[in-house]
């Protein structure tokens, strides 16, 4: 589910039903409550976005507006108001316009409304972890980039020196480094990164195409976060990364 939306209105009008259907189709959990202080207070737990829908001649009372003011100003909840221009002017005398997440003047476009709710929810989403993948094999880089880009912010470079240049200007939460590269070996790049204060704390995983005991011992002697065989598949790689990041956060 994308999040929970509560529509506060005078009743289940055609437009309220239309909004609920559109939001549910977009993946939201949607509920509604009548425009009374008692019902709003009893329904507000766990709600991510509050939508106040005001029909013609059904202005909310002062108690409802004060609750929405507290939600938007004190607890910083997202409150969206849909009303006529005149009703909107009256509502913003109680609930500051600067604290409203969005406003719509009736009549309004439901598609545009759902897009705005999507935008508000995306702004709450945690930022993707940044991963730099370093490998001289361009085909492999393209494949890994495709595998990871849905879940992570992925950057790729094809040499160790490009990695150092990239890290001088950008932040990475993890570097996945090919252990065996021409010109500058992965082990040399690893030591260079660990010797510089700016990059010393960036976790590094090694990629290796060799799985014999002697090769693995050489990789592990540098104490990387992990070593990954290049034969690893997409799902196994995603599991490794998820376990790594969840372990660090814990």
List the defining traits of the structure above.
5-stranded parallel sheet, 250 residues, alpha/beta, 44% helix, 10 helices
How are the elements arranged and paired?
Elements: E1 4-9, H1 14-25, E2 29-34, H2 37-43, E3 49-53, H3 62-74, E4 78-83, H4 85-91, E5 102-105, H5 110-124, E6 130-134, H6 138-148, E7 153-157, H7 160-169, E8 174-178, H8 186-195, E9 204-208, H9 213-220, E10 226-229, H10 234-249
Parallel strand pairs: 1-2, 1-3, 3-4, 4-5, 6-7, 6-8, 8-9, 9-10
Helix pairs in contact: 1-5
Outline the structure in words.
By secondary structure, this protein is of the alpha/beta class. 44% of the residues lie in helices and 20% in strands. It is built from 10 helices and 10 strands. The protein has helices at 14-25, 37-43, 62-74, 85-91, 110-124, 138-148, 160-169, 186-195, 213-220, 234-249; strands at residues 4-9, 29-34, 49-53, 78-83, 102-105, 130-134, 153-157, 174-178, 204-208, 226-229. It has a 5-stranded parallel β-sheet, sandwiched between helices. The protein has a 5-stranded parallel β-sheet with strand order 7-6-8-9-10, sandwiched between helices. Helix 8 links the parallel strand 8 (174-178) and strand 9 (204-208). Helix 1 (14-25) packs across helix 5. The chain is elongated, with a radius of gyration of 26 Å. The two termini are 24 Å apart.
